[in-house]
From TrEMBL:
Encoding gene, per UniProt annotation: rpe
Binding site for a divalent metal cation: 36, 38, 69, 178
CDD domains on file: RPE
GO cellular component: cytoplasm
Organism (species): Fodinibius salipaludis
Keyword Glycosyltransferase: no
Chain's role: Catalyzes the reversible epimerization of D-ribulose 5-phosphate to D-xylulose 5-phosphate.
Protein family (similarity comment): Belongs to the ribulose-phosphate 3-epimerase family.
Catalytic residue list: 38 (proton acceptor), 178 (proton donor)
Cofactor: a divalent metal cation; Co(2+); Mn(2+); Zn(2+)
Name of this protein: Ribulose-phosphate 3-epimerase
Cofactor binding notes: Binds 1 divalent metal cation per subunit.
Keywords on record: Carbohydrate metabolism, Cobalt, Isomerase, Manganese, Metal-binding, Zinc
Amino acid sequence: MDFTLPILAPSILASDYTRLGEEIDKCNQADIQWLHCDIMDGHFVPNISYGPKLVKAAGSCTDAFLDVHLMIENPDQYIERFADAGADQITVHQEACPHLHRTIQNIHNQGITAGVAINPGTSLQTIEPVINNVDLVLLMSVNPGFGGQSFIENTYQRLQKMSAMRDENGAGFLIEVDGGINLDNIRKVTQYGADVLVAGSAVFKAKNIPKRIENLTQKAKLGKGTIA
Ligand SMILES: O=C(CO)[C@@H](O)[C@H](O)COP(=O)(O)O
């Protein structure tokens, strides 16, 4: 599937679940390419969000690529269920996968793309052995578990290092950044190498959601490729 970079991926975690269809429809009005679903289990992260049933409902409201981020322990146990629910991509946490290479294979075996996520406090070197096997690396720019947190500033250096690792290894994965992205920092995040920008509060707390998505996307485009 071809996408135009940078990609803005609204995270429905910040949406009004009582009007989920309408909220996603507003994203469709802005021609979103990706929709981001955050799965939290109350163990890997200190919060519980939603499961495959809601992912399926969300997917039925859009043609956008369904980007499912599993912040859960034992992700292997749930890969098939989220794939059946319509996930186009599943991302698992390095910190939750003792057999990361096998988990990535399990995702690919479902005929979908695979991502690996890392927390702000985890060394980038820990994912080096799998970077030629994944389609996406997700750098968390907040400690996962809650929407509405502030962006952690050292993400910029981590983005630069991750881009350099990709070049050195001749890898082709996309770099996604998730947490605390807003109108003030989105340009800089893309300047430092992000291809995909997850935004929850910045999208769904806006009065005019389609307009906000357009503004965020425009600012992200201004940053793309401006730092070597
Ligand atoms: O995974 C997470 C939080 O753990 C994120 O996807 C949040 O949903 C992003 O929300 P904002 O920081 O943009 O409000």
